[in-house]
């Protein structure tokens, strides 16, 4: 009985932490990537919870789905198909900002994003 109660409490706590992380990330973020051609410099990304799972998209009209999206503590990582290749994004969330690196075949580029006003 004690074991069952412990499992139920642990599961509830884990769900609450996961849900809290999702709440902090959910929404639209405007980003700027440094040291890239102007057409790739600015854009938006959107994170939302669907069916108890965090999903995300890069772009507004031609939305590219984030693959292997992982949100752990304040770390956000995902991959996106981009012009026939795969790019990786590794970021850290601090409040309403995300900072990190975009990793491509052409190198690594700094990225910074801020939460868009609702």
Automatic annotation (TrEMBL):
It comes from Dyadobacter linearis. The keyword Signal applies. Residues 1-18 form the signal peptide. Keywords: Signal. This is Extracellular endo-alpha-(1->5)-L-arabinanase C-terminal domain-containing protein.
